[in-house]
TrEMBL record:
Entry's Gene Ontology BP terms: methylation
Descriptive protein name: Class I SAM-dependent methyltransferase
Alphabetically ordered keywords of this record: Methyltransferase, Transferase
Organism: Chryseobacterium herbae
Keyword Acetylation: no
Amino acid sequence: MKDLMGKAVWDYFHNENPEDLQTETSISELDELPVNYLFRDFEEMNGIEQKALELAQGKVLDIGAGAGSHALYLQNERDLDVLALDISPKSIEVCQLRGIKKAVCENMLNFSGETFDTVLLLMNGTGIFESLEKIDTYLQKLHTLVSDNGQIIIDSTDILYMFDRDEDGGVYIPAGGYYGELDYIVHYKGESEDPIKWLYLDFETLKNAAENNGLTIEKVMQDEDSYLAKLIKK
């Protein structure tokens, strides 16, 4: 991994000629992602993110923390015990430089030894699951990270709207797999990351997977095609 997302975060934090990131998927064209978007404060975040942060309580694990904006808010404004976790070394360095007391560079599947009252996966948190084939592995891991009375707060988007429809309202979905399984590619300063598997989940599919892995699920919020869900151990 070239850690291009981390490089952009690092450049922005240090004012080292940062440029906008570019992202694309296997079903969408190149799109600009301004790096300052990753440094938003609470007031600049969308309603789903704000609601998720309001629901957080106790000891918190922020998976896919990025530049640390969610963790920083919970630590400084909510006075919660937060651990920021990300696979990007540069992003975790910036988290530490921004004042996050606990920040670890690790894949969540390899992270262990602690349990948390709240586990956060935001900004399409289901993306980290990679594919339907691997969702059980990730949900079982989350089951071990959350305390008995704890909660997993996660968001995603049903991307069915991105596919063409016929005159009768039927949707043209390519054959071979679930429509939310995408390849996701990041570009920065002329370099390209290798494609990663990224999963967008409709709520019913997430609900079925959660219940099959010993978790109950509640849809907390819906915003157009995106939603926020809370999962707890049965």
